[in-house]
Amino acid sequence: MKNKRPNDYEGEFGFDWMRDNYSKICKDYEALKKEYENITISGKEYFVPWLSMFPEQKNVSLLLKVKKTNDDKIKKDDVIKLPAKDGIRFDPEEVKAKDIEKNDVEIKVFCDRSLNKNTVCDLLDKNDNIVGKINLVRNDKISKVKVKFIKVMGNESDNTYNKRTFDQIPVNWVTNTIEKFNTKYFNQSLIKVENDGLEEMIIDVDSYIKKETLEAFISNGEKGIPRYNRGFDKELYKAYVQKNGNYKGVIFFLSAFHQQDGRIGHAKLYPTELNYILMTPDSIGNENVSSFAHELGHTLGLDHTWTTQTENITRLDAIEKALLKNKTHLDKYKAYPDTTPVKGSIETLKDVRERQKNHIKGLESEKTSRLKFIPKHPFNKATTENMMDYNGYDVPGKESIHNPNSERISFWKWQWDIMINEVKEYHGSR
User: Fold this and answer.
1) What three-state secondary structure class fits 411?
2) How far apart are CA 332 and CA 211, in angstroms?
3) Of 169, 202, 272, 279, which sits with the fewest C-beta atoms within 10 Å of its C-beta?
4) How many CB atoms are closer than 10 A to CB 97?
């Protein structure tokens, strides 16, 4: 017996199961198998799927499918029974096996009261032998995280990019985006995203250019829309905090400025306590908000589906070298007063020290995060319908790789756990 999602599934609930092709696309299939309860049914390996749903949720249904484990024919009186357990019930409670053999049969699932622990429901044959199981996730505690959207606009009097970017936002776009977060994406992990509104932030373009986080763009002798560089999002959040104080939830900075490499969104996974995301004009106002869900997934602790432990170790080695270099430099000039001028610069040694100390603090925070959140179960890139995968990618000198899945929509059960913990620790409440 196998369970799968309906063909018209759009993320209404969470359902994670061991797909048939995972043994081919997961880089460590044996480690992946440990994420699922592994039992033997009729001599065959069976992985128990995970189902997550809110108490009293109405739109949860699964498809039952018979997977024969021997050559015996299915008899007319063979049935699959789905007995109720601990507030979980199914409709119908019994299905003829012959019907399932011909076509997948839709089964509605109801959770009539909160579950204070993970609950396993058995699927039985006519003799009450176990032919399948479903593991339902505890749902008596719902995680909550606030999300705020901020329009980032330039103060240049002759610019047109503010209007060009933000006039394209439909009236109810923020509300609709939050609704999709709660009915298509993060509801899978039983996280409720709360709408904390849309605000405006006007920045002094020249000052950001001096910080080298914005770069003036000149084409054919004419001034164009500035492009932002690395660190732009950090400077925006710093400016926000100076005016408003630290923010507990997650901020989407909606930028009127484009990024240099053409990406439409940018969120930092490490350090894990960071809570801001930068989105470019091409993504703002779109009805499809999957890119926003992808970036929010990063902020809530998720890496890309293909990231390996080796890549994490390589970055940790680079962090150690950078820490040693900065600490050695600080120690070398520790006897010099802060007022010592820096050769070839208007800065003093105090300026350099503050910058290096902040850099060291950031590196140590990233190190702590990377030691705690080690990448799990890497897959081949662009092979899954997971939200943290890509639709495809370019291979130099070869044909582009395209993800065979038409839409990225799922989060895996272990990702549910990571996001819930991240909300609890840094961004929200539970």
Assistant:
1) coil
2) 27
3) 202
4) 21
Buried b (16+ CB within 10 A) or exposed e, 317-337: eebeebeeebeeeeeeeeeee
Residue 45: which H helix or E strand, with range? Answer: strand 44-47
- Give the angle 371-377-379 at the CA atoms, nearest 5°: 125
CA angle, residues 135, 421, 188, in degrees to nearest 5: 45
Quickly tell me which residue has 């799968």 as its tokens. 4
CA distances (Å), 315 to each of 303, 370, 408, in order? 14, 9, 28
Other Cβ atoms less than 10 A from the Cβ of 399: the count is 7
| pTM confidence score | 0.91
Q: Are 298 and 268 in contact (CB under 8 A)?
A: yes
Q: Please provide the average confidence, as pLDDT, over all residues in the chain.
A: 91
CA distance linking residue 412 with residue 386, whole number of Å: 7
Q: Is 285 left (phi over 0), alpha (psi -120 to 50) or beta?
A: left
Q: Tell me the per-residue pLDDT of 235-283, one tens digit each, with 9 for 90 and over.
A: 999 999 999 999 999 999 999 998 877 778 889 888 888 999 999 999 9
Quote the crossing angle between the two packed helices 349-372 and 309-332, to the nearest 10°.
150
Is 205:225 a contact under the CB 8 Å cutoff? no
- Distance set, CA 361 to CA 241, 337, 358, 371, 399 (Å): 18, 22, 5, 16, 42
What's phi and psi for 352, nearest 5 deg?
A: -65, -45
pLDDT tens digits, residue range 46-62? Answer: 999 999 999 999 999 99
pLDDT at residue 430 tops 70 = no
Q: Where are the beta strands (DSSP E) in 67-208?
A: 79-81, 88-91, 94-96, 105-111, 119-124, 130-136, 143-154, 191-203
* pLDDT value of residue 69: 61
